[in-house]
Amino acid sequence: MSHTASRLLAEGPRVGIRHFTYEDGAEFAALARESKDLHRPWLFPPDSALAYSAYAGRLIEDRTKAGFLVCEKDGERGDGAIAGFININNIVEGGFQCGALGYGAFAHAAGRGLMREGLDLVVGHAFGPMRLHRLEINAQPRNTASIALARSCGFRLEGFSPKMIYVDGEWRDHERWAITAEMRTSG
């Protein structure tokens, strides 16, 4: 799928970010199926058109969520190919101005630095146009790739929460990572 500059919310040297659309379903689901070995046991993105439609609908319709696709610019799969996704969940406004990030790379893009660039763009968008003050990442301690991404984008480790999130049939321990708008501007 080819993107146009007008659809991008922000762009860096190799990727741009844009919102999910219902039309991305076939590409997203195919990439999720190709990437199962990479994602398991950490996350389970939708791998069928029906599951994608429900998932994207929540990100598109629910004001407490914002979904972003990380899209390659001039990538090996074509301009605008989806490299991964980053969602801001549980957005709380008012005095809190916070959201919880979840993300995943697709297999063809893993280890190439595209998600680092994409996460940096999403953080900038969250602290800019979205006017959030704080973003959090909850990662399972053995998910070294997710923790490395959080660390590389300036998130700090704030704690450990035993049995925090129900994943793949069990309550799983998670490390809590966070960044604030002030940390981003001072670092």
Radius of gyration: 16 Å
Q: Please tell me the total number of domains.
A: 1
**What's the SSE pattern?**
EEHHHEEEHEHEEH
What is the CATH H-level superfamily?
Gcn5-related N-acetyltransferase (GNAT)
Percentage of β-strand residues:
25-35%
Number of strands: 8
What would the principal axes of the Cα set say about the shape?
globular
Helix content: 25-40%
> What is the CATH architecture annotation?
3-Layer(aba) Sandwich
* Major β-sheet profile: 8 strands, mixed
Structural write-up:
The protein has helices at 25-34, 36-39, 49-61, 114-127, 144-152, 181-186; strands at residues 10-11, 15-19, 66-72, 82-92, 98-105, 134-139, 156-167, 170-180. The chain has a single domain (8-186), classed as Aminopeptidase (3-Layer(aba) Sandwich), CATH 3.40.630.30. The radius of gyration is 16 Å and the shape is globular. With 187 residues, the chain is an alpha+beta fold. 33% of the residues are buried. Strand 1 (10-11) and strand 2 (15-19) form a beta hairpin. An 8-stranded mixed β-sheet has the order 1-2-3-4-5-6-8-7, sandwiched between helices. Helix 1 (25-34) crosses helix 3 (49-61).
